[in-house]
Predict the structure.
Amino acid sequence: MKSGSNLERILKAGHFAFTGEVGPPRGANVEALREKVAHLKGNVDMANITDNQTAMVRMSSWAAAMICMEEGVEPNFQMVCRDRNRLAMQADILGVYAHGIRNMLCLSGDHQQFGDHPQSKGVFDLDSMQLIGMVKKMRDEGKFLGGADIDVPPELFIGAAANPFAEPFEWRVHRLAKKVAAGADFIQTQCVFNMERIRAWVAQANDMGLTDRVAILPGITPMKSVGMAKYMKNKVPGMDVPDEIIKRLQGVDKKKVADEGIRIACEQIEEFKEMKGVAGVHLMAIEWEHKVPEIAERAGVLPRPEV
Amino acid sequence: MIVAERKPFDEIKNMVSGYKKVLTVGCGTCVAVCLAGGSKEVETLNAELNLSFGKDGPEFGSDTVERQCDMEFLAALDATVGGYDALISMACGAGIQFLAERFPDKPVFPAVNTAFIGVNLDVGWYEEKCRACGSCVLGMTGGVCPVTLCAKSLFNGPCGGTNQGSCEINKDQPCAWHQIHGRLADQGRLEQIIEISPPNDWRNQKPRKVIQPGYGERVKSQGQ
């Protein structure tokens, strides 16, 4: 065991992992955060705690991760390269480990221009690949990036992101290979809507032997409305929403669109359960945390295994 | 070259109001080429200042030296500057500071914002190309700078925000890593970016000096 986290144990036991996501509040509203987390309790193996997502200031991911842990849900501490240099990163990595956090996700982060402080200086001292390598070095060699010994190294389960849909498509699997070589233990992907593409990408990863070395968890986001689907297709960089998805949502009664969105998500999850090289799924029910119990139920992933 | 843009007129005017005699100093090199601070721009700025202040305003003189980043050329101003109580520099940030160093008892005000190290795309159209990071990786990246042209300065891109050849920040901004991949693929050199590029040694985080090989003794003899 590298970290002994619940996610690591679930994967090691060969179970199909099911992870969720919680965005920290835009303030110190602990009650709102506890309520979001409560919907996930018992329904997911681990919850990602986002780090100033879309470059908007929120409660820090480590602090929200600790509240999540208090509520009985294992957190996945997200860290972006945008807001911290290598000193602050290593300090926070030690800090979260000291407080019992065992999973972390290494990300580049959305550009600061998108957020509520577009004048800020983006740090990007390291990129996500280098961050993964640094966490691995801290854990496996017990050394800081600068080379000095760490007195009690942080034993974290290392996650990374992948976008199988961005151009150039043929490069995506090589970038995945770089993340695996850097030290990623698990991968959570961008929201999947184009099943054809993800099938091809997972097949490439299988052929390169990557799926034996890393657990791949495709991202699932149920569409709440036709408007959301169109927005994600047209406005969100790196998102690949095929027209069939939009047509299918348009094809049902207005009151049934959200239900159809969940149905699509569940069908995807069913396919991933059977797909060689896929170790689980990551559910990103954006501002729809209260629907997680229903989605988990309908996706047939309950009860979550105890390991 | 170094590319600069003239500051908004009111900002320049506010800086020099209250002085009696002001010398506007242009620079004949980079900022002249990019149409921000050469002799022509000096005359234009002075004409605008004269018009705006009227006859009770400061008296503006003008002079343009070959390079304000070179003491040898600044020496040509020694005889003139004494007659003025403030200076406006239209050079880049380096030239402005060297002018201020040459005449430490005179207030020196910048009339341009230094923008970047860049190239000439067309008359009046320039593009940033280099951040002077101090550890050039262009050999690995097919001649496209990831530090400057990737909005996140990634060494192992592209990130998940790459958008059909564009950067996530703007449809009109090409994704540098998309370009790097394309050029290396065309040259059959993708192996250059298969390996992980290690954390960068940021050498532009403190004031730097360069002494070329063979010039160390000369520098020492000048007591530096």
Q: What stands out?
A: The two ends of chain B are 28 Å apart (CA to CA). The longest helix of chain B spans residues 39-53. Chain B touches chain A through 30 residues (CB under 8 Å).
